[in-house]
Amino acid sequence: MRRSPEIKKFLSLCLSEVMDEKMKQLGFVRRKTSLEYHRQLPDVVLTLSMHFDARPHWDSAETFLKPQVGIEHPKINELRARIEVGTINEHRDEYLRGTFVTSLRDLVPFEEAVDWYVTTDEDYRKALVWYLSKFEQHVNPALERLSRPEEIIEQYEKRTWFKGYLDTNTVVASYIYLGMPEKALQAMERRFGNSEERKLYAAGFEFVANIAKAR
Question: Which residue(s) pair with 64 in the sheet?
Fold first, then answer.
């Protein structure tokens, strides 16, 4: 079986054969040896990263594919960083970088979701064909919607299924970004107001409250 560097090299080759052309039509680009696609929009970057586990100990396959998708909104991330001062999240660079990060599989309807354990060359290509189909059909439209702070707020307020993948601090930052600090404070109170976490988020509460007072 191949080791991680060989798997990465082969996956990159497969992406060029199976996904690159269609992803380019969707606005996503990838460096030649990278396993990550990017789509630059006016205020945000959408990403698809082909993560994997080589030789998963729980299965006999060579590789477990686990692609991840995300949204990077720099202004939202800056606000989140202010909210999270003094908390454990303050020191998680990767966590702070993504406005919204989840598994590609999580944005596929449950009845259509598949876990891909692959070994043969044909397995890899079949998996990528499936991922590309689901990305175009379900995932990319979801990312496009959630790239707008207004949509993040709407999903949160409607308590839809997206809410399970939206971090509270991203919601709070989106409220502030859209000029609604009072609602941002309400969201913080709802999530952290009656727990020990309120102490951890003391600086964040003060930051949001000061914005609300200044209005």
Answer: 53, 117
